[in-house]
Amino acid sequence: MTRDIAVVAFAQTDVLRTTDELSEVEMLMPVLHSVLDRTGLKTADIGFTCSGSSDYLAGRAFSFTLALDGVGAWPPIAESHVEMDGAWALYEAWTKLLTGDADTALVYSYGKSSGGSLRDVLTRQLDPYYVAPLWPDSVALAALQAQALIDAGDTDESALAAIGARSRRVATLNSHAQLRGSVPQGDYVVRPLRTGDCPPVGDGAAAVILAAGERARELCSRPAWIRGIDHRIEAHTLGVRDLTDSPSTRLAAERAGAFERPVDTAELHAPFSAQEVVLRKALRLDDSVRVNLSGGALAANPMMAAGLVRVGEAAARIHRGESDRALAHATSGPCLQQNLVAVLEGEPR
Amino acid sequence: MPEILKAPLVVEFPFTRSLGPVQSAFLTGLRERVVLGVTTTDGRTLVPPVEYDPVTADDLRDLVEVAPTGTVTTWAWNHAPRRGQPLTTPFAWVLVRLDGADTALLHALDAPGPDAVHTGLRVRIRWAEERTGAITDIACFEPYDGGPARLTGSTDEFADPVGGIVATARLDYTYSPGRAQTAYINSLADRRTVGERCPSCRKVYVPPRGACPTCGVPTAEQVEVGPRGTVTTFCIVNIKARNLDIEVPYVYAHIALDGADLALHARIGGIPYDQVRMGLRVEPVWTDGARYPDHYRPTGEPDADYDAYKELL
Ligand SMILES: [Zn+2]
């Protein structure tokens, strides 16, 4: 059974360095209400709910269950969770709608990085035998990738600085972004990466609603149809990979149909400046494509939500008529280990 | 609004992980100052070795020794080492392709500064003095001016192979329970139990979490409940928890406080464990200086009717 499925609504929080005054569900609830309000749906109308978050950010087991209070989970709803960025929850919801079991889906994800030390927390996703005992943090691994790109002649430190500067400059138009406008490139965090090459650490949440076929047209005047979506993974051993390339992104894009016709807009989840270089190459994006008009992850990188935000930002541009064909990319893991690509289209106007 | 509560939260875990045949040989080799790789069906040598080919997913079992010397394939200068990292002085993270290997191993390089490091730098392993069969048996790498070091000739024939590792980890958090639970905990300090009423379905949740799980809307209206309540269900605990100074067996129960629409859980005392029952009326017992009730005890009232609490089971 083939059904057309679209993103029909998107909402996100402001991304903030700390949100002590809010529990996860308190941070999440305004976003859930906002995304539902955009469609006029009530939680009881939603056919399937899927969320993304991580216990390691919260420091507690099964932390997502408390956030479920925000979606009205009683009486029982059809619900699932991924211990990943919400972009992968969206993928699960998309497959659920494809089966015909539901016509609408609510996808949300959130992360409060402020409770712990994010660089240390992220080491726990590494190979536990050979890598995690050395505690290489997320910036260190990204720095190895940046140096590999510099050695290969694909970029240099000033080009990387320009990527960060451009991201924060365009983010002045994004009221949800954490870093906007001019930000000093700063000192080395782990050389060759400086503060300006690294994403801000922040708390935030995002939500989208998916709908199938006619239901999507009822809920949104210009749905962002998902023409293709795919996700792929690299070998987990860093030393096996060519860090200057992202074959998994390219394969996911190919399977999602990204290369069939040019896109006009791309939202790339590149938490570190050098990763944008890798992704542009893998996705064959030239200067005709508007990349990360939201500011991208260098302006706001709420863990577990930043990938879903990329899909949401791309869809929102189609909703507003600012894009006809957009690519959204999400990543997870060190040095672009896992990559998801979605291609979204609006109907001709 | 009163200040939001915060407290340190330390999560520590010593995961004990077992090793497959290839990982076991590699880590045992490190203990014996021998570096082993694994050869793939297309003739490449992977170091560190894995049990399945990352490209073809073939079973990999053929171990081969490589040299403890090699070449840096990429690096990053870490001027501020963090807890748990291999060196406490500034060092370079490096990917090193050992002589004889086709892939690179991640580790630390001890060097005087970033100017002393470049891709292509020749390096060798500095072994840890005490080795246990872990990746940290390599203390770090150090610059080395020379060709491939001689092999020992050892393969995977080691006595007393390592069967597992203990992957210890510690993460430090600052936990904040948010607005609703801060208000709840603060009122408990005054020996009051305060829930929140849902503006939509009017139910009172204790402890409040800031949202009604039925309606999915924020709750804010505070309602004092209890202090007395009714046991809705219970269990008998027979195993003593570590650091817990309570004699077993004891009873842990769900208690619907008067005025609450959700049962909270607490220990029941002041009554033999085998006489606790559904419908038992209880009240909190506070100890001096405590921020929450130590336990609940019978009030002596007649048991509540089943109909009075059946919706709260
Ligand atoms: Zn309610």
TrEMBL record, chain A:
<dbReference type="InterPro" id="IPR002155">
    <property type="entry name" value="Thiolase"/>
</dbReference>
<protein>
    <submittedName>
        <fullName>Acetyl-CoA acetyltransferase</fullName>
    </submittedName>
</protein>
<dbReference type="InterPro" id="IPR016039">
    <property type="entry name" value="Thiolase-like"/>
</dbReference>
Automatic annotation (TrEMBL), chain B:
<feature type="domain" description="ChsH2 C-terminal OB-fold">
    <location>
        <begin position="223"/>
        <end position="286"/>
    </location>
</feature>
<feature type="domain" description="ChsH2 C-terminal OB-fold">
    <location>
        <begin position="64"/>
        <end position="127"/>
    </location>
</feature>
<dbReference type="InterPro" id="IPR002878">
    <property type="entry name" value="ChsH2_C"/>
</dbReference>
<dbReference type="Pfam" id="PF01796">
    <property type="entry name" value="OB_ChsH2_C"/>
</dbReference>
<dbReference type="InterPro" id="IPR012340">
    <property type="entry name" value="NA-bd_OB-fold"/>
</dbReference>
<protein>
    <submittedName>
        <fullName>OB-fold protein</fullName>
    </submittedName>
</protein>
<dbReference type="InterPro" id="IPR022002">
    <property type="entry name" value="ChsH2_Znr"/>
</dbReference>
<dbReference type="Pfam" id="PF12172">
    <property type="entry name" value="zf-ChsH2"/>
</dbReference>
<feature type="domain" description="ChsH2 rubredoxin-like zinc ribbon">
    <location>
        <begin position="188"/>
        <end position="217"/>
    </location>
</feature>
<dbReference type="InterPro" id="IPR052513">
    <property type="entry name" value="Thioester_dehydratase-like"/>
</dbReference>
